[in-house]
Amino acid sequence: MSLHYHRRITLIPRLLHLNVGTHGWSLSLGTRRAHITRGSGGRGRASVRLPGGFSWHRSFRRR
Question: Residue 63 has what pLDDT?
Fold first, then answer.
């Protein structure tokens, strides 16, 4: 059995969130439809939700 912890802290309502968990932290900037996430390990992801159930994601790493 493994134990997990996750907490989402709103820094600016509907715009900026800090996510804290057992494996690290991340910041999310944007709305539900389009946002950018940057993790503690240098990983990032851009996501856009499109009408009709489609979505677009792009992952990137810090150089």
Answer: 65
- ∠ at Cα 16 (32, 14), nearest 5°? 45
Closest CA to 20 of 35, 9, 29, 32: 9
Is 34 contained in some domain? yes
Q: What is the spatial distance between Cα 52 and Cα 54, in angstroms, rounded to a whole number?
A: 6
Residue pLDDT, tens place only, 14-28:
999 999 998 899 999
Q: Which domain holds residue 44?
A: 6-61
Beta bridge pairs of residue 48: 34, 56
Report if residue 53 sits inside a domain.
Answer: yes
In this prediction, residue 61 carries a pLDDT of 82
Residue found under tokens 């134990």:
3
**pTM of the complete model:** 0.71
